[in-house]
Amino acid sequence: MSNTLIFERAQRFLAALRHCQVLGLQVHDASPLGLTLRLPYSPQIVGDPESGVIHGGAITTLMDTACGISTVCALAEFEVCPTLDLRIDHMHPAEPNRDVFGFAECYRVTPNIIFARGYAYQDDPAQPIAHVVGTFMRMGIGVAGDKQLKRDIQGADA
C-alpha cells in the first residue's frame, strides 16, 4: 500500500472519531513504518491552569489514538481493532503553549492481536514526554457493525 493511501486512510479514520475532532488531532505523517499525530496546544486541554501543563488525559488520548490508527499502516485491509490494554509511562510534563506529537508503530501482528508501541514528544523525538505500549484485538474484516466505519475510512479505495 502506498504512503499516500495510508495517509488518506489514517485521516479518514481520525475524522470518524468525534473526541479526536474536539481535541483537534491531526495526522502529521503516516507510512508503513508508523503514524505520527499532532495534538495542538489549546487552553481546553490544560490540566493545571497555573502552569499551563497539558492534562495527562489528552496525552493518553493522543497515544491511544496513534496506536489504534497505526493498525492501518500495518494491515492491508481495514479492520476494527479496539484497545485491549494500554500502558503509558509519563516521563515529564509537556511544555505549555507547544504542540505535542505522538508516534506509534505496530511491531507485531498476529491473527488475533496487534502489538503497538510509541512515544509522545514536542520538538525532539529523542526527548519523549511519554512512552506507550498497547495491544489491540483484531475483530476481522467485515465484522457486523463496522461496515459504515469501513466505508468512511476506506472511502474510494474500498
Automatic annotation (TrEMBL):
<dbReference type="InterPro" id="IPR029069">
    <property type="entry name" value="HotDog_dom_sf"/>
</dbReference>
<dbReference type="Pfam" id="PF03061">
    <property type="entry name" value="4HBT"/>
</dbReference>
<protein>
    <submittedName>
        <fullName>Uncharacterized domain 1-containing protein</fullName>
    </submittedName>
</protein>
<dbReference type="InterPro" id="IPR006683">
    <property type="entry name" value="Thioestr_dom"/>
</dbReference>
<dbReference type="GO" id="GO:0061522">
    <property type="term" value="F:1,4-dihydroxy-2-naphthoyl-CoA thioesterase activity"/>
</dbReference>
<dbReference type="GO" id="GO:0005829">
    <property type="term" value="C:cytosol"/>
</dbReference>
<dbReference type="InterPro" id="IPR003736">
    <property type="entry name" value="PAAI_dom"/>
</dbReference>
<keyword id="KW-0378">Hydrolase</keyword>
<feature type="domain" description="Thioesterase">
    <location>
        <begin position="52"/>
        <end position="126"/>
    </location>
</feature>
